[in-house]
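From the methods appendix. Each design record in this collection lists the tokenized structure first, followed by the designed amino acid sequence. Records were kept in a plain field format so they could be parsed without special tools. The example shown here is representative of the layout used throughout.

RECORD:
FOLD TOKENS (324 positions):
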């Protein structure tokens, strides 16, 4: 499918501008929520549990909802499961916040998922890193261009892992119709600053580092104050209290939450590969959320790590006046 057939026309441009405006408003107001995907104990998708869980996330007032992304185990979903996950997120949102669905792998597969998301009513796409292979800058840019040309949905490129853009590549992407922003998962703030300075002001950036709150002040200093919050997936009380303190300039509260909750959480997360998702899901289960286990190749936390997580979660909730 060519760009002439899908990604053109004034109506598309108007709709895209509306999505950018809503995302910018949401990013200024709250954290970005990346919901977990609910599975049953046998590993099958749990649509009812997922619907209830998404409703809980929305009740905690995120700036936008990003279903079927990394935290939502996009890499383990087949096309039908993906369709259900995005559809439920759109239905539960009911237009209250933008819904940005994940897509990825090679460009042909990414387009298939993109079209499913479009049919399901998503507002935009997050293009996650391609599968396995390293690639030059021209190839990284071409991957995003091909996806943008094949869908009417605006998209945000995501750099992490083997995908790392230069400022010039981001400047190029910002001129591609349909590409509206960049999520950064690397934390190279010198490079990110160059990107911010290279593009128009309406191009969106947000901090997508694991446990983004730990680097929130540093990102804000280079012009990227918005961030995704894994903690919102299981303890929105903590995530929202941290953001409120940050916005209010209450550095005492910010530092206390970092010292007593977020930094210890990062230390626990870094013990085992995959804990960036597995710990989040385990914490959500500790809160009674109907999310179930992770799918292989991820593994659920050990008994010792789960006990440490429970203690840490209770500490974090106590700091903001909430209960486990």
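DESIGN:
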């Amino acid at each position: 499918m060519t760009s002439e057939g899908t990604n053109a026309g004034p109506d598309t441009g108007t709709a895209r501008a509306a999505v950018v405006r809503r995302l910018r408003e949401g990013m200024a107001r709250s954290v970005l929520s990346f919901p977990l995907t609910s599975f049953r104990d046998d590993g099958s998708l749990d649509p009812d549990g997922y619907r209830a869980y998404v409703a809980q996330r929305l009740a905690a007032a995120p700036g936008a909802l990003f279903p079927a992304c990394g935290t939502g185990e996009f890499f383990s979903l087949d096309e039908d499961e993906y369709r259900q996950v995005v559809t439920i997120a759109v239905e539960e949102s009911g237009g209250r916040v933008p819904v940005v669905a994940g897509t990825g792998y090679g460009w042909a597969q990414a387009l298939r998922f993109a079209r499913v998301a479009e049919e399901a009513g998503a507002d935009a796409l997050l293009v996650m890193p391609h599968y396995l292979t390293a690639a030059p800058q021209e190839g990284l840019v071409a991957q995003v261009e091909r996806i943008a040309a094949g869908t009417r949905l605006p998209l945000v490129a995501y750099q992490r892992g083997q995908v790392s853009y230069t400022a010039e590549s981001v400047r190029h992407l910002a001129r591609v119709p349909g590409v509206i922003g960049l999520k950064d998962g690397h934390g190279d703030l010198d490079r990110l600053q160059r990107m911010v300075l290279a593009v128009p002001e309406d191009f969106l950036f947000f901090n997508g580092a694991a446990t983004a709150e730990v680097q929130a002040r540093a990102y804000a200093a280079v012009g990227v104050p918005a961030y995704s919050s894994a903690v919102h997936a299981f303890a929105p009380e903590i995530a929202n209290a941290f953001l409120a303190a940050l916005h209010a300039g209450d550095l005492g509260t910010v530092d206390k939450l970092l010292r007593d909750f977020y930094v210890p959480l990062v230390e626990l997360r870094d013990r085992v590969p995959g804990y960036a998702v597995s710990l989040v899901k385990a914490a959500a289960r500790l809160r009674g959320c109907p999310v179930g286990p992770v799918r292989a190749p991820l593994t659920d936390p050990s008994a010792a790590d789960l006990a440490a997580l429970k203690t840490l979660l209770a500490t974090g909730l106590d700091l903001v006046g909430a209960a486990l």
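APPENDIX NOTE: The beta strands are 32-33, 64-65, 100-103, 124-127, 155-159, 179-184, 204-207, 228-229.
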